[in-house]
Amino acid sequence: MSAFAHPFFLHAVLAGTAIAAAAGLAGYFLVLRAQVFTGDALSHTAFTGALAALALGWDLRIGLFVSTIGVALLLGFLGRRGRSDDVAIGGVFSWILGLGVFFLTLYTTTRSTANGGAGVSVLFGSIFGLSASAAWTAVSVAAVLCAVLLAVARPLLFASLDEAVAAARGVPVRVLGLVFLAVVGACAAEATQAVGSLLLLGLLAAPAGAAQRLTDSPYRALGLSAALAVAEMWAGLAVGYAVPSVPPSFGILAAGALVYGLTFVPLPRLARPLGAG
């Protein structure tokens, strides 16, 4: 029987493909703008936000999106020209972790008996557990995020490569930075459903890092980052389906790490014919 005959696998492929495409696009700009630490902070924010929603009896997606987008914008306002800086991230990071510990204690002591697996799914993802409605919601949200990123790609690329010149040319650098951070926050919330809050940084950073090493063309690297993210998502889902003991989130990130590692392998050069000028 084909894997696609199983609804849970079909839902995972639909949602995973859309989530990976959005993460690949956003991740490329994260790497280009040297804001990968922001993605790390948002992964912990996703954990805290989801646990807060669960502890309060809400849908965890409410906590995911409100917390990640809110903290992403906060980092942008605290930074310069809509960019988060390490000092702001460090301060917010510790505060968010403290809140995470509080909500974890609150959740495990009051509500974990009703939904004991929810906390684990927040940490490591539960893409094979998505319902049809959740999968199509993920597709819709990811499509909007991809559209926004593609719409601002040209000025955002200009601002990322030469912020001072872009500002002098009239590019709204600060607004672009805030829009980008909001999109990254939403991507982090979406990716948490696929790979979990502990591993979402890998989905944002690994394909983008590999793409940047494989080509010097920004637009080509942007497309390659999204393509690699989708391919790694498919590979992880295939491994997770074929070997049920392997969590799909592990397969996805293992594929990402493998591809990134292969970019460091030197390719053999073709020998030049004797007598060639």
UniProtKB/TrEMBL annotation:
Q: How does it sit in the membrane?
A: Multi-pass membrane protein
Residue spans crossing the bilayer: 46-75, 87-107, 127-152, 164-185, 222-243, 249-267
Major site of localization recorded for this protein? membrane
Q: Which family does it belong to?
A: Belongs to the ABC-3 integral membrane protein family.
Source superkingdom? Bacteria
- Do the record's keywords include RNA-binding? no
Q: What is the lineage of its organism?
A: Bacteria, Bacillati, Actinomycetota, Actinomycetes, Kitasatosporales
Question: Which species?
Answer: Streptantibioticus rubrisoli
Q: Mind telling me what this protein is named?
A: Metal ABC transporter permease
